[in-house]
What does this fold into?
Amino acid sequence: MTSSLTVGLLGGSGQLGSEIRRTATAAGHRVAAPDSKTVDLRRPEQLTQWVLETKADAWINAAAYTAVDDAEDDVAGATALNVDGPRNLTSALASANSTAPLFYLSTDYVFPGDSGAPYTEAATTLPRSIYGATKLQGEKHSLVHPNTIVLRVSWVFGRHGHNFVKAILRGARRFAREGGALKVVDDQLGAPCGTRTITNTLLQLIAASAQPGIYHLTSQPYVNWHEFAVAIVEEGIVAGLLDKSVDVLTQPTSALNQKATRPVDGRLDSGKLQTTLGVEAPAWRDDLRLMLSELDANELDA
Ligand SMILES: NC(=O)c1ccc[n+]([C@@H]2O[C@H](COP(=O)([O-])OP(=O)(O)OC[C@H]3O[C@@H](n4cnc5c(N)ncnc54)[C@H](OP(=O)(O)O)[C@@H]3O)[C@@H](O)[C@H]2O)c1
It folds into this structure.
């Protein structure tokens, strides 16, 4: 059991940050998670003051420009948050002489997605989108701090915020009422990862004083988005969020006309993390079941 720590968290209102706040607080840690107006990653003076005041035992940067398609037309906005933001943060840590570990959340979008095998941490990066490119730059700026762990994750879902699971459930509830079928792409391969698993992993890495560097976190098994959607509908019925099943049809990514290119095969190899922590890769279906058991149907219809 780790003793009580002060965790400095940016992005505490986000999908992942909300879960980190909840779980870390429940574990007895003090979480200093200012909102983005009070401490804006783009404002060096705000960051410096916050770092000096907080004196955290661990820093977590879960704040980012995450609107993947918008970023294609808003390079300046994505750069300000995902590139300049991490640079501002590591400068603030340096000026405050903080050597506490910094955890930076990153993504499979740093990879091209055409290798045909899960990516290890040593694999060559080649982002295909502005989001992926800015997150990769953010990794490099974060790693300037001498005690940084970059944790790459993919297909994040959880109880808070907007995500694929809620979108599928909303669509399924509507089609169950009105008739019709969901259509989901089946030509992108990866792994969903629950915010609960990511949060637990961060806390385990802190407790283990893990070596700085890049780590991949993935849940199992690897799937395509269509297979994930089918599981969501199945578990939605079990959880009582859906009265009956709906058809889930396949479609190609090209049918979506998205601005940003996604990795066709963004599978991450998490062997290094498993060896470091002495754990097996978790099952995303467990996180899905837990999330759905906590979800109120009214939230989906709101
Ligand atoms: N979502 C995914 O599928 C996915 C996949 C791989 C990696 N990741 C990475 O995981 C991390 C968490 O993602 P998420 O899904 O939780 O993101 P999210 O829900 O979009 O949350 C983003 C957070 O960033 C904060 N933020 C925005 N502008 C800010 C600013 N100028 N200064 C400080 N904070 C600011 C937001 O605060 P406000 O609410 O106040 O704006 C919010 O708390 C990110 O680094 C993301 O790149 C996500």
